Amino acid sequence: MSRPFIILGAGGHARSVVGSLLRAGLPVLGLSDSEPARQGGRVLGFPVLGDDDTVLNHQPAEIYLALGIGHVGQAAPRRALMERFMALGYEFPPVVDPTAVLGHEAALGAGSQILASATVQAGCVLGVGAIVNTGAVVDHDCRIGDHAHIATGAILAGAVDVGSASLIGCGAVLRQCICVGIGAVVGAGAVVVADVANGAWVVGTPARPMRTKDRESVA
Q: Contact, 181 vs 163, CB < 8 A?
């Protein structure tokens, strides 16, 4: 890849993405962010060039884009941002940190990210914009849906199916062959031994559904 990257978003997740790109020896032009307070600043030495429209100063053939905003229970902002620029012809290559383990015959969707020290084993499929965050383990033949997030230190045994826009929280453990529905949230540290329904939030050991009024910062 010879084109430089612009990272969309300049918060904490962006720092992890920039680090992965640098370790991979890939060029970074800068970042964008919709928050005025971040514009004009720097992230790991790289400039925050302006709001997201600053991307339009470059033709699609001149740059690559990477998502620098995370997903903690709300995948819609990531999805909308990526879809906007893909519709204009911009490309989002997968980002794979060189410290990560990527198994044979794993398939990576556009804009997917495998960050530092993560493991994605043989036969896994990562959807568009999916994140396997720092130190997470995704064992053989798992399917991770579009814009789903496997957070730091989570462990998925073999053949787990995670629905699109779902969040598997930090340090959660999922038994083999579990199915997590679309838009579900598995809380940090949960141990999941049964399927999780679409839109459900589960926490604890073993994981159990949460009441809606209790859904605060569980992931």
A: yes
Domain positions in the chain: 5-93, 94-206
Its CATH architecture, for the domain 94-206, is: 3 Solenoid (2.160)
Q: pLDDT for 190-209, tens place per residue?
A: 999 999 999 999 999 999 99
Active-site residue, selected from the candidate residues 58, 71, 104, 140: 140
Architecture of domain 5-93: 3-Layer(aba) Sandwich (3.40)
Query: Catalytic: 140?
Result: yes
Residue 153 is labelled as binding a ligand: no
- Is 71 annotated as belonging to a binding site? no
- Measured in whole angstroms, how far is the alpha carbon of residue 119 from the centre of its chain? 14
Q: Do the Cβ atoms of 66 and 83 come closer than 8 Å? A: no
Q: Closest Cα to residue 14, out of 63, 52, 53?
A: 52
User: Does this model's pTM top 0.85?
Assistant: yes
In CATH terms, are 5-93 and 94-206 the same topology?
no
DSSP state of 23: H
Cα–Cα distance between 136 and 149 in angstroms, integer?
10
Chain Cα centroid distance, residue 98: 16
Q: Which residues pair with 208 in a beta bridge?
A: 203
